[in-house]
């Protein structure tokens, strides 16, 4: 869901999933210090879009850790 409580458009949802997947991979391989610009570049996105569709870094790293351990 978006911050306004409305569902994300399909393309926004795919972009968000791609950024989160890329962040998860980067954090697992290199730790939490990977810059958002680098995550955005690897995801094929730009920083503004990644910042707008991604949760804050701390929440993103928690999600990454949780899914790493629960997988």
Account of the protein in words:
The chain is mainly alpha-helical and 71 residues long. It has one domain (10-66). Helix content is 70%, strand content 0%. The chain is built from four helices and no strands. It has helices spanning 10-30, 36-43, 47-53, 57-70. Helix 1 packs across helix 2, helix 1 (10-30) packs across helix 4 (57-70) and helix 2 crosses helix 3 (47-53).
- Give start-end ranges of low-pLDDT stretches: none
List SSEs in N-to-C order.
HHHH
The helicity comes to over 70%
Strand content: under 5%
Give the overall form.
globular
Beginning-to-end CA distance, first to last residue: 23 Å
Could you tell me the radius of gyration in angstroms? 12 Å
Category by helix and strand content: mainly alpha
Number of strands: 0
Q: Determine the mean pLDDT.
A: 75
């Amino acid at each position: 869901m978006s911050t306004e409580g409305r569902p994300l458009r399909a393309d926004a949802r795919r972009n968000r999933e791609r950024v989160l997947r890329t962040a998860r991979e980067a954090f697992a391989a290199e730790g939490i210090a990977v810059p958002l610009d680098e995550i955005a570049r690897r995801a094929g996105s730009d920083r503004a879009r990644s910042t707008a569709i991604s949760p804050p870094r701390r929440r993103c790293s928690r999600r990454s850790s949780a899914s790493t351990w629960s997988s």
